[in-house]
C-alpha cells in the first residue's frame, strides 16, 4: 500500500508541476525514485522499531487503600489517616533522559487513599537545595515557571480520557481533561476545564510537601462496586527541566494515557449527586467617548444570571448558562485583514472553552459563530437611503441562553449535545428630514445545535459522528453538516489510519433559491510511534461543501495531497537534550475547474524544519520553504478569475532562552523572497522579553514587526472585469505589554495593553488579466491607502474569596483610528490613536459557588 501511495504522489507531482516541485526530478525514472524512497523508509523503519519497543515495561499497580480517619488539608501529612495510604515512589525520568531513576535527595514520595467523600493525595517533593525550587504566583491554570506535581486518573480505563490535577510549590492549582486530538495522537490537555477541590502546600528545608482532596463531584466514574482506574503521577523540576512519572513513560511511544499504571480494587464508592450553581451579579459603567463629560455618554447596566452544572448520572453532566454575561472577557486581537479569508479569533468565553473536548472533534465547531457577526450586518448599510442615516448597527448577536450535555459511559461511548439561542438583531436607521426611526433586521432568531457520538476501542482507537445544525427564523437559510470520523491504531500502537467523511446541506426558504448538498473527506495513514514517523494524506472537498455556519471554513473545491517524514532524538547526546527534524510537503489542485480556466493546479510546497533543545535548556529551530509558481483563485475576490503568483523561497529561525531564569527572551525571524516576480519580499520579526522580579511580580513585552517593502495583492474591484491589484509597502507593528502582580495564590492583578498599527501605501497599480497576469494601470486619482490602528487595555483584579467563588473588577479601554493617509511613523500613529474617541468600560462581577452536597452537610 505504501508503494502505491508513493507512486501516486510521484505521478501527480511530475505531471502537474513538471519538475518544479522536486528539482531536476525529470532526470530520474519513477522506478529509481521509488527504490531510493523505499530503501529510506525501510532503513528508518527498522531503526524505529528497535527504539519503539526496546524500553517496553509492564504497567505498575497500586492497591487502593481506604481510610476512615479524618484528614485536615494543610500540606503537613501529619494526620494518622496517611498511615492507611498506599505509597507511590520510585519515579522514572522521561525527559531529558528516558528511563533514569530519581536521585536520592531530589526524589519523590507520594501517598494515595480514599474514603466515602473523595480521594486524598499527598507527598513530598524532596530537594537537596531549597533554592532549586522554581516557584511563581501565576494564577489558577496560569502555569508560570513552577515546579509541580500532578495526579492523572483514567477512571474508565480506556486509555483515551483522563482527569488531571496539579499543584505548585506556592499552592496554586491547575486541572485539565486529557483527550485524544485528531491532529495529535499523543492527545491534548484542556486546561479550560475546572473542578472545585482543595489543596495545601508547605515549603521546608527538605523540599516541599503537599496535600490534595478531590471530592467525587470533581471527577466522573462509574457506579461499579469494584473498579480499577488508570493512574499516573508526574513531577516536573523546571530549573533542570527534568520530568518524572510513577509509571514509566517513553516519549517515543504514541500516547500518554496508553502508558499509565493501575489503581486497583477501588470499592464501594458512589457517584454523588453533582449539582453546582454559580449565580453571578454584575455592574457595568460604559463611557464613550472618554474625552467628554456629558452625562448622555455614560451608560450603566446591572444584571444577574446563573451558570449551572448538574450531574444527570454518574457519567453525564448538564452545563447551562442563563442570562449569560461575557463582558469581562479579554479583548480580541483585531488586525487589518488583507487576505481573502476571514480572521479567526480566539474564544475567551468560559462556557465555550470549558469541557468542550467532544465538541471540537472534526474541527467543525467554531464557537465564535454563536453570538457572532449578524449575517446581514453590511446589508443594513446598503439599505440606508440618501435622506437617512445609520444610528446603530450592533456587530454581535445577543446570546439568550446556552446549554450542553456531555459525558462518557463505562463502555467508552462519549455523548455531547450543545444548544444555544440568539435573539433577533436589528439596525436602527433614522430619517434625517422627519426624524422617523425604522428597524432593519440584520440577524433572525437563530438556534445553534451540535451533537457528537464518540466510541472508543482498544489500542487507542475510536470512531465518531458529529452533526452541526443552524436553524434561522424568517426567510434566511438553514444549514446542516454531518460527519463521520475514525482513527485506528495497530496492536503495537505504532501505525495509524484515520479519516473522515462529511456532507453539508443548505436549505433555502425562497422559491428562487436552490438547495445545496456538498461533500468532503480526508484519509491519512502513517507511523506514530518510534523515532521515525511518517504520514501521507489526501483531502477532498467539492464545490458545494461548506461548514462555515457553525465552523470556521475558508474555501472548498480542492483535492490536496500531503506527506510528512520526521525523525526525533529524544535522549541527550553531545550538545543537545532533544533534536527533531522533518521534511513535509503538499500539492493542491482544484476539484473542478472554475469558469474558462483550464488549469486545476493551485499550489505546492516543500518544507524542512529542525528544532532542538541544548544542554543549557535553550530551544532553537530553523526552517526553509520553497513554493513553486501558484494559481491563486481567491485573491481576486471574484469567482472565475485567477492570479498567477510567482515562485518563492523562505527561510527563518527562532530561539527561546531558559524560561526558568529571571530574564528570558524569545525571538523569531522569517524572510520570504519571490524569484523573478516584481522584486517582492517580506520579513517577519518578533521579540518577546520577560523579567520576573520575584515570585509575585513580572513584566513581559512582546513586539512583532512585519515590514513588506514590496508586497503585491488585491486592492479593490472597479468593475466586474476590472480587478485592481497594487504593489504596495505594508508596515505592521503589533506591540503588547503585560504586567502581573499576585498578592496571594488566591488574589492577583493583571494589566495588558496592546497597540496594533498597519499601514498600506500603494505604489504601482495593475489590472488583473483574464489569464492571471497583470498589466499596468494608469489614470487612477485615488491611492486606496490604509492606515489602521487598534488600541486596547485590559486590567483585571481577581480574588478567589472561597473555593470556586470569585470577585472580578475589570477596566477595559478600546480605541480605534483609521485613515487613508499612509503615515508610517509609529509614535505619531500611536498618539493619534490615543487622541481618538475611547470606549471605557468598568465592571464589577461577583460569582458565588454553591454545591448541593456542601449545603446538605451544613443543613
UniProtKB/TrEMBL annotation:
Residues 271-858 form the DUF5916 domain. The keyword rRNA processing does not apply. The lineage of its organism: Bacteria, Pseudomonadati, Bacteroidota, Cytophagia, Cytophagales. This is DUF5916 domain-containing protein. Pfam families: DUF5916. It comes from Emticicia oligotrophica (strain DSM 17448 / CIP 109782 / MTCC 6937 / GPTSA100-15). The chain crosses the membrane at residues 37-54. InterPro entries: DUF5916. Keywords: Membrane, Transmembrane, Transmembrane helix.
